[in-house]
Amino acid sequence: VLPTLMIAAAACQARAQTPPRPTPPAPAAEATAGDAESDTARKKAPAPGRGGLSVPNDDPFPSTYKAPAAAPFAIRNATLLTAAGPVVTGGTILVRDGKIAAVGAAVDVPAGTTVIDGTGKFVTPGIIDDHSHLGVYAAPGGQAESDGNEATRPNTAEVWAEHSVWPQDPQFPRVLAGGVTTIQVLPGSANLFGGRSSVLKVVPGRTVQDMKFPGARYGLKMACGENPKRVYRQRGPSTRMGNVAGYRAAWIEAEQYRRKWDSYLGDRTGSAPERNLAMETLAEVLRGNILVHNHCYRADEMAQMLDVAREFGYTIRSFHHVVEGYKIADRLASAGVAASIWADWGGFKMEALDGIKANAAILQQAGARPIIHSDDPSGAQRLNQEAAKAMAAGAALGLPVAPADAIAWITRNPAWALGLDDRVGSLEAGKNADVVLWSGDPFSVYTRAEKVWIDGALRFDRTAPPETWWRTDFELGFVPVEAR
Amino acid sequence: MVRSILSTSVVGLALAAAAPAAAQPIAIVGGRVHPVSGPVIENGTVVIDGGRIAAVGASVPVPAGARVIDAKGKWVTPGLINALTALGVSEVGAVPATVDTAAEGEHGIAAAHRVWDGLNPASPLWAIARNEGITSVVVVPSGGLVAGLASFADTAGATRTALLRKAPVAMAAALTADTAGAPSRGDLLLRLRRLLDDAKAYGARKPDFERAATRDFVVSRPHLEAMQPVVAGRLPLLVAVDRAADIQALLDLAREYGIEVIVQGGAEAWRVAPALAAAKVPVLTGALDNIPSGFDALGARQENAALLRRAGVAVIVTAGSVESFNVRNVKQHAGNAVAYGLAWDEALRAVTLAPAEAFGVADTVGSLAPGKAANVVVWSGDPFEFSTTVEQVFVKGAPVLATSRQDLLSERYRTPGK
To answer: Is A243 helix (H, G, I), strand (E, B) or coil?
Structure first.
C-alpha cells in the first residue's frame, strides 16, 4: 500500500482527462475574444454542435448506457440536502421514470408507490467526482493497469482516457458504495496536454461505452508546474517558462487548424484538410465544445494560465488540485473558473506546500466555485468526509459553511464543471434521479451511504446481502465476497 | 546528554522525559473524561502537576493555586498516538533533501539505521499534528528488507531529546511482493533467516568476530549489533506485510526464532486473525483501505480492525500509510473503524493505549493515569467527529496549541485580495 503522498504524486503525475457533454452547445462567444480576425472567422463558421465540427464522425465511440427500468419510489421523512436550496427536514423525494418527480416538505406520493422510511436519515444528490482515474489506473495496479499517462511527449492531446478505461476495475463498485454516481476520468498530469477525459456513470458495464454518460461533453486535461517539467526535463520542457511556451505553441497551431477546418466546413468546397487528432481536440476547445480541466497547484501559475486562455480565446472550466486556490479566490470567482481541490492534502511536493484545510471555505466566501475532488480511489469513496473536514476548518477560521452549501462542493459544483448541472448534481424535479440515502448526516464520520440510485435504478444497497453487490470480473475468485 | 545516550547503543533505552516543570498545577474540571485505562468518568477532573498526571477521577480535589480549565460539555482524552509516521523525517516528499527515512544499508538491510538521527524538531509539521490532538507518534524508517530502528516521539519539544520518549521501539522491516527487489517471497524469508542466524551467531561469538575468526556474515558489525535486541526477543520486528499467507509465514518465522513481531498494514490480517491472536502479535492498520490495490492486498476491507479486535488481537489504528503532513488523519481512520464495527472505546484505545503498549511506552503514556506524562487533549466533543474542535492540548503538562505555518497562511489569505 503506497503512502498517501506517493499515491498523490503518482496520481497527479499521471492524470489527464476528457469528459463528454450533452446537447447544449457551448456558445462560441464563451470562448473569449482573440483578435478581430478570429472572431470573424468564428462567426462565419457553422454554429458548433455537440462533438467536433472538424471530424467526419463526431461521436465515434458512442455511449451504449441504458438505465434499467425501475419502479417509482419515494423516500419519506428524511433530511434532504438538495444542493439547490435550504435543508429540508422531514422531507420527501419522489422518483419516477428515472427522474426526480418531486422534492420537498410536502410531496404527494401516489398510492401504490414504494415508500422508503427516511426517518433519521439524509438524502443527497449522487456525488460527483470530477477528478478520477478509475479504470485508467485500475486495481490491482502495477504496470499492466497503468494506463493513465501517455508520458511519451509533452502534448498528447490526441489520446482519449476512455480508450484506457478497464470496466472491470474493482475500484468502481467501491466508489459507488461511497455514494458516487458520476465521475470524470482524466488522463494523468505528466503532459502539458494529457488528452481527453471521459465522463462515466458508476455502473457495471462490459465496455466503457456502457458506462459513458450520454451526451456528456469531453474535457481536455492540461497540467502546469512540476510534473511536466520533471517528466520531460531531458527533452523539454524543463522549466515553467518552457511549459507555458509549450501551451502557447500548441494553441497557435490549433487556432490555424480550427480556421482551416471551419473554413472548409463552412462551404465544403475543395478537399478536406488533413485530420490531426491532437489538433482536433484543441480546436474543439477553441470552439467551446470541450471543457478545459487544468491541473495547477500554485496561485501565480493559475493566473498565468488565465492569461494564456485569454490570449487564445478559450475558457478554463476548472483548475484541479488547486492547493493555493485560497490565495486567488477572488480572481477565480471573477473569472468564473471552478476550483477542484482536496480537503487536506498538501506538503508532498513544493507546489503543494501551502495546502490549507480552509481552502474551500475561503473560496466559498469569495464567491468562487469550490469542488472537493478525489484524484484517488480511497478519497473518492468518502468525498462527504472530505467535505466535512473542509467545513470544520472553515468554521475554525470564522468562515462557517452551512451543510446546504457544502453539499454543493461534491454535487452541484462538479456537475457544473462537467457541464452537466442541467441534468445532475441537485435534487430538483426533472433532474436525473441520482440519489443517495445516507444512514445519517453525511458530514459525520460514522455515516455511510445506504442506498444509491442512478437514473432511478437502485445500484447499491448496503442492507442487501454482500453477495448480491456488484462484483467485477476481476474480483471473482480473487477477492473474498465480504472484502469490500 | 541526549547525544551521549543516543550514541552509546541501540539497545532499548527509555529517554528521560524532559518534562518542563510547570510551576502551577492544572486542573481540568467538569469534562467527560476518557482515561482509556478505566471507565468513562462523567463530570470528571484531571489534575496535572509537574508535567505528569497527578489525579483522575470524579471527586478529585482541585489543588490550591491550580489553573482551572472548565471542560464542562467537553471531552478529555489522552493525547492521540499515530504509530505509523515519518513526522520529523519527511518534510516535503518530493524533495530528497528534506526526506530522511531510508538508509542505504547492505543487501537491503539497514538494521543499524536510527531514524531519529535525522529527526528535525524545527519541522512545521509537528504543530499541524499537535494542534489536532496528536501528542505522540512512532517515527518509522522505510526502504529495503530491514529499514532500521523506529522511535517513539512526543509531538512537542524544541530538541531531539525533548521529542524522543523512547528509542528504539522497533526494528522496521518489510515482507511484501515489491520488497527490496527480491525475486520471490521465499527469497525474502531466506534473507531474513540468514540475517537472524548471523545476528545470533555474532552475538554468541563476538570475541571470535573481533579476531576475524568467524565465517562471513551477511552484513557488517553495526547491523549485526543492532539486531541483538531483536534476536533476544526484546525489540519487536515491525513488519510491513499485507497478504494473509505472508503474515502466516511471518508468524512461523517469529516462532522459529523466538522473536517479537508487530504487523504493519496487514490488509489481509483479518483472514488470519486467530493465529495473530494466539501469537499475541499486534497489528497496525488503517480503516479506510478496501481496495485490492495489489495481489498482496486482494482481501483489504474496512472491517479489518473490528474483526481483528473481535478475535482478540491488539489493534492499533493508524492513518493507513506512513504519514507526515496528515498524521492527524488517524482520527478519521478511528472514526471509520467504528463505522465498520469496532466499538468506540476500542477505537480510542487503538489510538492511545494500544500503540503505547505495543511499542513499550505504556508505563509513561497512552492513558490518563496518575504518574503518566500529562499528554492530554480537551475536545469540544467526540474526537473522531470532523466537526469537533481541539480546545486544549498538553504535552508533558505544557499547553502546546500554537499557530502553525498553515494557520499563518490561512490568516494571511482569509480574505483574498484584501
So the answer is: helix
In angstroms, the separation between the Cα of residue B277 and the nearest Cα of chain A is 20
Q: Which residues of A touch B389 (CB under 8 A)?
A: 392, 395-396
Taking a C-beta distance cutoff of 8 angstroms, is the pair A38, A218 a contact?
Answer: no
* All cell numbers assigned to B410: 490561512
% chain B with pLDDT above 90: 93
The whole-angstrom distance between B9's CA and the closest CA on chain A is 30
- Tell me the percentage of chain B whose pLDDT exceeds 70: 95
CB-defined contacts A:B, below 8 A: 179
Q: What is the spatial distance between Cα A137 and Cα B289, in angstroms, rounded to a whole number?
A: 16
Type of residue found at A281: T
Q: Comparing C-alpha atoms, which of B153, B28, B136, B128 is closest to residue B80?
A: B136
Q: How do residues A37-69 score in pLDDT, each as one tens digit?
A: 333 333 344 444 433 444 545 789 999 999 999
Residue B14 clears pLDDT 70, i.e. is over it: no
Burial (Cβ within 10 Å: 0-12, 13-18, ≥19) of residue A61: middle
Mean pLDDT of the A96-116 span: 97
d(CA A482, CA A466): 6
Instruction: Tell me the residue type at A98.
Output: G
> Is residue B239 pLDDT above 90, yes or no?
yes
Mean pLDDT over A420-439 rounds to: 98
Question: Are A425 and A83 a contacting pair, CB within 8 Å?
Answer: yes
Q: Distance of CA B169 to CAs A305, B22, B37, B231, Å?
A: 49, 28, 22, 14
Q: Do B385 and A331 touch (CB under 8 A)?
A: no
Which B residues 88-127 touch A at CB under 8 Å? 91-95, 125
For chain A, say whether B414 makes contact (Cβ under 8 Å).
yes
Strands (E), B347-406: 376-379, 390-395, 398-399
Q: For chain A, say whether B416 makes contact (Cβ under 8 Å).
A: yes
Find the CB nearest A327 among B289, B297, B413.
Answer: B413
What are the CA-CA distances from residue A29 to residues A23, A33, A102, A221 (Å)? 17, 8, 35, 22
User: pLDDT of B182-217, one tens digit each?
Assistant: 999 999 999 999 999 999 999 999 999 999 999 999
> Given pLDDT bands bounded at 50, 70 and 90, which one contains residue A334?
very high
Give A141's contacts in chain B (Cβ within 8 Å).
293-294
Q: Give the integer Cα–Cα distance in Å for B170 and B151.
A: 7
- pTM of the prediction? 0.92
Which of A172-181, B7-16, B271-280 is predicted with the least confidence, judged by mean pLDDT?
B7-16
Q: Using an 8 Å CB-CB cutoff, list chain B residues near A482.
A: 301, 303
Give the minimum alpha-carbon distance from A134 to chain B in angstroms, rounded to a whole number.
12
Query: Which 3 state secondary structure label does DSSP give B269?
Result: helix
Instruction: List the grid coordinates of A135.
Output: 479504470
Residue A11, pLDDT above cutoff 70: no
A353 vs B contacts (CB less than 8 Å): 92
Q: What is the largest CA-CA distance in chain B?
A: 75
Is B384 in CB contact (< 8 Å) with chain A?
yes
**Average pLDDT of every residue of chain A:** 90
pLDDT score of B250: 98
B chain contacts of residue A171, beta-carbon cutoff 8 Å: 291
Min CA distance, B70 vs chain A (Å)?
Answer: 20
Question: Does residue B36 sit in helix, strand or coil?
Answer: coil
Q: CA nearest B154: which of B263, B285, B15?
A: B15
Amino acid at A118: G
- Closest-CA residue to B28 (of B44, B50, B52, B51): B44
**Terminal Cα-to-Cα distance of chain B (whole angstroms):** 50
Interval B273-293 mean pLDDT:
98
